[in-house]
Amino acid sequence: MLLITICVGSSCSLRGTDELASELFRLIEKEKLEGLVDIVGAFCMDACSKGVSVRVGDRQFSGIRPQQAEEFFYKEIFGNVKNILVPKKPD
Ligand code: FES
Questions:
Q1: Nearest 5°: phi and psi at 4?
Q2: Pocket, ligand 1, Cβ cutoff 6 A
Q3: Exposed (0-12), middle (13-18) or buried (19+): which is 49, by Cβ within 10 Å?
Q4: What does the alpha-carbon distance between residue 85 and residue 27 come to, in Å, rounded to a whole number?
Q5: Range list of β-strands (E), the chain
């Protein structure tokens, strides 16, 4: 399971947490990743200055805008699900 944590703190909420989460849920459903990716909320991640803060696994991003949801999803989530769930075999 790849866990996506979206900040629901007040600053991020004002910058579009709900819209970003809705779009990510839509893309997860579109790509049939239900059960492989989950989205949860978290309070302030101490990176409030630009846009919504998001953690994908143990990697944290900040300044994500709802309009960037699709680009963010395909770059940071979709392509990594397989690698995260199926670790490479040692040579
Ligand atoms: S409110 Fe989201 S990082 Fe602070």
A1: -110, 125
A2: 7, 9-12, 44-48, 53
A3: exposed
A4: 18
A5: 2-7, 37-42, 52-56, 59-64
Give me 81's structure tokens: 């699900």
CA-CA-CA-CA torsion sign (67, 74, 52, 36): positive
Under DSSP, the state recorded for 45 is -
- CA 51 – ligand 1 centroid, Å: 8
Nearest C-alpha to atom 1 of ligand 1 is from which residue? Answer: 9
User: What confidence score (pLDDT) does residue 41 get?
Assistant: 96
Which pair of structure tokens corresponds to residue 74? 């395909």
pLDDT tens digit sequence for 26-44? 999 999 999 899 999 999 9
Tell me the two tokens of residue 90: 């040692």
Domains along the sequence of the chain with CATH: 2-85 (3.40.30.10)
Residue type, 5: T
For tokens 């866990």, what's the residue? 3
